[in-house]
Amino acid sequence: MPTSTINGNDAAALQAAREGVAVCDRSHWGRIQVSDGDRIRFLHNQSTNDFQRLKPGQGCDTVFVTSTARTIDLATAYVLEDYILLLVSPNRREKIIKWLDQYIFFADKVQLKDVTNETATFSLIGPKSDALLDKFGAGAIIGQPYASHQLLLLGDIEVRVAVGSGLATQGYTLIVPAASAETLKNKLVEAGAVEMSDRAWEQLRIEQGRPAPEFELTEDYNPLEAGLWHTISFEKGCYIGQETIARLNTYKGVKQHLWGVRLSTPVEPGSAIAIGDEKVGKLTSYTQTEQSCFGLGYVRTKAGGEGLKVQVGDSEGELVKVPFVTHDYP
Known about the structure:
Elements: H1 8-19, E1 22-25, E2 30-35, H2 39-46, E3 59-65, E4 71-79, E5 83-88, H3 93-101, E6 111-114, E7 119-125, H4 129-135, E8 149-154, E9 157-163, E10 171-177, H5 181-190, E11 194-196, H6 198-208, H7 242-250, E12 256-263, E13 272-275, E14 278-288, E15 293-300, E16 309-312, E17 315-320
Parallel strand pairs: 1-11
Antiparallel strand pairs: 1-7, 2-5, 2-6, 3-4, 4-5, 7-10, 8-9, 9-10, 12-15, 12-17, 13-14, 13-16, 14-15, 16-17
Helix pairs in contact: 1-6
């Protein structure tokens, strides 16, 4: 059963993420460098968001999808002067590189480089993350749009600081050379950040509704169903999966949506979500929070939405909104 007791360290980190500032080491996430002259056009054509509008210092979330618009991964892209850095899920790094590589043709000026082992990534999460950056004199990034990024000094360490924690909570993503990772983490903790484990991150991910590969992002679902409307440009031209996504939007064809599910008892992911004897969806993720049992699941659009009472295995459930996703074009 996928329940784990919340230990004292996790409880302190979760409280910090909600009321102060926590730091989570995300260095096991993949980092892919896309360079050379056609890099913007190439990524524009290979994923859901509009790269042509981005300038160095800007960024966006984007989704890589199959030709039938099934999800491969949710990535964050940071545009620099001479390359684009993609931050991808831990278990999708090799797949994304192979996926992109097959679309690089002879005349394309595109180079892919896996820089995961050369770099490290941390997330600052929480309402006091601004104040922590201010302590280091790195306040220039505060108040900038999502995924904006700058190279700043935190103490004596040069760090690329990007707006956005990776979750729905206020915060920042920090990218540094791997050799500086331990020193940076120690500086952040000394400045007041509480260390957050992968287990606590996973609890927050589920509570906030960030879809993850192998759970909510699979070939069973498209990004509109996953609530990732903010990652999709409906104005740009052709890209892989574009026809399917455009048709779903135009004809209101999204047949299911991702919801939070407040549960009365622990439930195994993969369990059917039902109303009476009728199956209306599937639970994809589960966590035990401090207050209750909680999951994420896809539910048929026609079955209902927020407040809907459902049965999940032996548990009673209720659909609730989660902040990371939206159910229509924002």
